[in-house]
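Structure in, sequence out. Go:
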């Protein structure tokens, strides 16, 4: 009898162990893999920021009319290059606006490629609606001209109109516009990228677990010692054993899928009351009591007037009256059980029944009590 009972217990323990193992395998299989091209970048493959200055003409009285000094000087210098000598004091720049120009030069951009350019007013122009940007250069940090731009400014539906009395109507943001494909690349950034024998990958979110998985996945696809991690966010890859040139090698590497690992973070924006939690956030078993204290102060005045036939010395008196009401919300302790998923965290916090503002205070208190297994990030 004892042998049979022990045998049944052994079979039950074996079944439970098998179920637990199956659940672990299922959970590990549900983790979503992502491509390397979505979580990492190649060193040297990046855009370069450009900046410039220009004039937008053709405005319907919405230009730099109140302070035309530098705008008029710029217009005078522009016309002088065209052979027209006119002093800056003779201009009325209500139809002209001085603008700052910004753009990004994509990696491997060639001469003749087109880029988008953002146009932003510098002076007191009211709107760029209907304006055209005159030919202007865009320079890099080295002072060299890489892009020239010219064309009509698009506001994307924005406009602003005002009457003589100061009343007006405005839609969107009329002092910033876009010239789509208005910039033409005139100078290239020379690179012999295809000749490289090794590259360096930089993870967008450095993490030791993720970088270890990246190295394992790359070495598993192309052989050992192809990839080596330098730190939590950098991987050095030898391309000689992968493909004939760097372009073909990166095309194969970026398709490799890796299961990423993320830190448990709770992002809190106290200005808007926004709370965002990562999937790895967990809460230990804890008891919470949270209530609001409301104080209402109401002031009033009572008027006491003298009765009929009262002596002349009698005067009207004003008696102040103040009422103070204090109410405190009564709430009992709520026990939050230890959570194993983000869904359990949400259900447990919703059970408290508080507003997002109160929830921010509760999350900070949980962190102070070491009951919140996550990092709180305030933005």
């Amino acid at each position: 009898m004892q042998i049979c009972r022990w045998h049944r217990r052994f079979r039950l323990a074996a079944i439970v162990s098998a179920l637990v193992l199956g659940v672990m395998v299922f959970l590990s299989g549900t983790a979503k893999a992502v491509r390397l091209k979505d979580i990492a970048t190649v060193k040297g493959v990046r855009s370069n920021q450009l900046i410039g200055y220009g004039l937008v003409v053709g405005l319907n009285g919405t230009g730099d009319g109140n302070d035309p000094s530098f705008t008029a000087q710029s217009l005078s210098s522009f016309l002088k290059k065209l052979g027209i000598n006119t002093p800056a004091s003779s201009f009325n720049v209500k139809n002209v606006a001085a603008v700052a120009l910004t753009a990004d030069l994509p990696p491997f951009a060639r001469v003749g490629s087109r880029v988008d350019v953002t146009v932003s007013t510098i002076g007191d122009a009211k709107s760029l609606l209907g304006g055209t940007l005159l030919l202007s250069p865009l320079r890099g940090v080295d002072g060299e001209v890489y892009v020239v731009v010219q064309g009509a400014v698009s506001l994307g539906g924005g406009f602003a109109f005002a009457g003589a009395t100061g009343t007006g109507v405005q839609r969107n943001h009329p002092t910033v516009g876009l010239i789509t494909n208005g910039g033409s690349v005139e100078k290239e950034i020379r690179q012999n990228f295809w000749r490289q024998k090794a590259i360096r990958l930089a993870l967008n979110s450095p993490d030791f677990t993720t970088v270890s998985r990246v190295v394992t996945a790359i070495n598993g696809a192309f052989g050992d010692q192809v990839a080596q991690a330098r730190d939590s966010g950098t991987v050095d890859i030898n391309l000689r054993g992968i493909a004939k040139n760097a372009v073909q090698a990166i095309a194969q590497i970026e398709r490799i899928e890796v299961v990423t690992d993320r830190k448990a973070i709770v992002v809190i924006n106290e200005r808007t009351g926004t709370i965002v939690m990562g999937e790895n956030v967990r809460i230990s078993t804890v008891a919470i009591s949270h209530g609001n204290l409301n104080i209402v102060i109401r002031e009033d005045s009572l008027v006491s007037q003298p009765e009929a036939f009262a002596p002349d010395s009698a005067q009207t008196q004003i008696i102040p009256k103040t009422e103070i009401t204090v109410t405190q919300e009564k709430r009992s302790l709520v026990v939050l059980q230890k959570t194993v998923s983000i869904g359990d965290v949400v259900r447990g916090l919703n059970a408290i029944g508080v507003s997002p503002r109160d929830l921010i205070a509760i999350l900070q208190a949980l962190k102070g009590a070491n009951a919140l297994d996550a990092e709180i990030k305030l933005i």
